[in-house]
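Appendix B.2, paired examples.
Example (i):
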Amino acid sequence: CIKIDVEPTNKQAAGYSLMFNVETVAQGLRYGVTVRDHKTMLKVYPRCFCGPEALEWLTQHALKAFMNKEKVDMGQPVGERLHILSRSAALLLAQRLIETEVFSQVNKTKARNPFSDPSALFRFREDEKAGPVLNTRHAWNCRARPPVLVAADLLQKGILLHLRPSFPNETSQEYQDFMQVAEELQMVDTSVLFRKAETSFFLNLHNALLLHTHYHRKTGCGENLKQLRNKLPKLHQYRIGGQCYCMEDMRHRLLRHKPGARCADPRIHFALSLGSMSCPDVRVYGVDELDEQLNEVAFKFCERHVRIDVSSDRSSSITTTLLLPKVFKWHGKAFGFERKQMLQSVAQYVEDPIIKALLEEGACRIKYPDYDWRKRPAGAPP
């Protein structure tokens, strides 16, 4: 909360303090200002809002708090002193919101007070590194279900939408139900999650946000996602329990902890999808059965992608090459810091005795076939 000390309109009364909840103010401000791209001096500032517009909303918000504190009815006239106090409190409140990193100024201005300068632009923290938040069209004001249930329900509804032969109509009941569950994420309490529940929660949310991103941008069936492979995990976000997460956050900060560090459970790489033909299949992960499900998807992924290529040259010498999916090229250190360790780790997810022996030996020739970046068609399992 943010504490603002003010003087009462009645000079004989004692002073008092107003308390503002940061999350409530930030959420209301997002609906109270217009976030759009601004162009100033031939430079484009994406996803910004103007300072005076924010100050006007904060002034009205502070005025309501003053009137409530001094028991002034909404229909009664408000004196000039109360308006002055409201504007002063709004300036202090805006500064505290910057200090708490709710938003920040993105351009420099000569004005002493940037909130009174129409050319001063600000951007919300959740809009800094990633695109728009997809589940804040309406505020969720009810109590949320346990986070694991919400994430599983959201992904299940997303999968059913993907199984339809065409993009879901935003006015359809199925899509409205999907959006309602997504908005419920605003109020979930992630602090109650233990490690296995957290893994299940964010695995399901990662893939749900993936499907939602494709619905939002209307990705065409068979569209080549190669050019988007680095941008896609940051295109959109979900507000989860007061914080915003994009797929990149869920991958590195929550599932893999630190980038470059060895993954606590490398099987997670068999569960994360970007929606292309070569990506792992999307499914709902439970808490109690998480280990069995991760083993199942690991065996299924390796059975589908790990193969042997036997060829001969002009001298009739036979060459055996092990074909591995590029997930082991990109994230090989998650399975072992050395090449032999990585191959032996992959061997535990392979049932074919010949391939298993080659992997355990760790001395075979390896080739990584081209990755199929085509978007999976609607109507087929995601």
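Example (ii):
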Amino acid sequence: MEILPQKNVAQHHEKQNRMYKDAFFSNVVLRKYLMLALIIVYVDSEKTEYYGKFKYRYASSAIMEYIFSDVQYREMFKLLPKNNPEDFNEFCNLLINDINSLLFDGLLALEEIKNFESMKEDQYTWSQLDNEQREQAESNFVDNQRKAKGSLQLSNVVIQLLSKVTNYCQEPFVSQELGEKFANAINYCLDQLTTQKGLKFKISNPERFHFQPKVLLQHLIKIYANMSQLQSFQSFVVADGRSYSDETFAKSLRVITDNKKGVQCEMEDVEKFQALVVVLQKLKEVASKTDMIFDDAPDEFLDPLTCNLMEDPVELPSSKTIMDRLTIKKHLLNDPHDPFNRSELTIEQLIPRPDIKEQIEQFK
């Protein structure tokens, strides 16, 4: 990361440092190709080992975050969905995967660290362990420290990057393939930060693990604000049965409007989020009534993975399973196999079932 301006350096060195970095990123060739190259690095790092991809994604995310301040880089970024749709959609897909899994892994590791430190501080409990148990506990502690630092550091950068990406490009995040997944991911993060572990999580010196719940929440609110006007996004948010609730969003609004909490959101973002909360409450009420209408749908009309009424049923050629086309398309984004027998599968192999679709329409 030496090519980025460094923090915590003397003022005159910082000024000189930034001057050299700005000159570097002003290169005409970089301005034309760097954004695409960074996205490809982010995508291709999926092929490396687990901790290795953290290094590549942290570097590419940090550089992208820095060059977003340059209008020419932003304009090149806006062209990527049209000029490089496959690379860009995969990049968006992996961003969504990362914001969900990284925060989950990081908070889980922090909880294990907290339990270990509490146990070690309790002299009686620690004395009851034999040498082998202590060595295992110490080893797990080291592993959890590494996981917490890696996951939360990258989580900070990825969520900040996503707040920039959604400011300039919203379409992939409301697509049929990614819209539901995206809404579920950010809903999960919001729930964890405001009602579960985040702001209430107590651990000594959380900064050593790069845990910054207030900053994370600030960027999450920015993401919601960026997407708030899109009706499809609103629908995806309230359809999330795992993490969405009116209470979660109402509490999040109270947190970001309470000066004592110290969450420094821009006023425009707060106002957009506040308006979104009202819209979501109304949509949730309507959705609840709609769900009641289809509660008695026959099992053969329901997708076997989501248990939702199918819109476009297709047959998987190997397992002969009937699924909704959208559900299997989402699955194939991350795993090119039939989920029921693990045989290789592509979208082109799906067999339309218009007969079942007609039956479902008649049921409706």
